[in-house]
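Thread: quick sanity check before group meeting

JM: Hey all, I'm pulling together slides for Thursday and realized we never actually wrote out the predicted structure for the chain we discussed last week. Dropping the sequence here so it's in one place. If anyone has concerns about the input, flag it before I start.
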Amino acid sequence: AASFSREVSAAYAGSVADEFVLKGGNVLLGPDVEVMRAPLTGRSFETISGEDPYLGSQLVAQYVREIQKRGIIATVKHWLDNNQEIYRQTMDVEVADRTQHEVYMAPFKAAFEAGAGAVMCSYNRVYKDHACQNKKLLKQFLREDLGFEGYVVSDWGATHDATASANNGLDIEMPAGGTFLKLEELVNVNKTIKEETIDEMATHVLTSMYVTGLFDNAFQ
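JM (edit): ok, ran it. Output follows.
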């Protein structure tokens, strides 16, 4: 962010992508595009937005294009409003819809328009509900308002209820949560998740893999 340079953002992303290719990686858990509102936030060194959504929008577009043209899925994070350190994993955030769209969601929008294949949901609550099972965040804001077609992956240990997460838009659960270990039971026994929902989750993942070329360019 401190460079204020699209060219530097692209060059940095290209270097990261080259290392990933050499290591055989195909999914980057980044970039972090959160707009910083508290200077002591623990991830402030990582975000490419700094405190300016316009800056973040300009830099992330170049970053994502460089990453994905090398066959690596970019995972923008953390969705959403996870931008202060104190109580970062548990706090509840209330933000007006206009502020969400014009400030906090703006860099994500630019990333999706550049083709980002994945987004990581955050630890905190937003509008009283955990981000990784939050229908307003994952269905309305992400899919309806921004038109995102890729997949949603949780942060480590950010899941709490498999049924709520699956039904409200989470596609992949990362380790430490463990709630998706019961997906088969919830679909076939409890009937709290429909098979169509599982199909939709898989479709989101496969779509990003196909678009990024992972099926065409296997690691050699």
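AS: nice. Helices lie at 6-23, 53-68, 97-104, 106-113, 135-145, 162-168, 183-188, 195-212. The first helix runs from residue 6 to 23.
JM: adding both to the slides.
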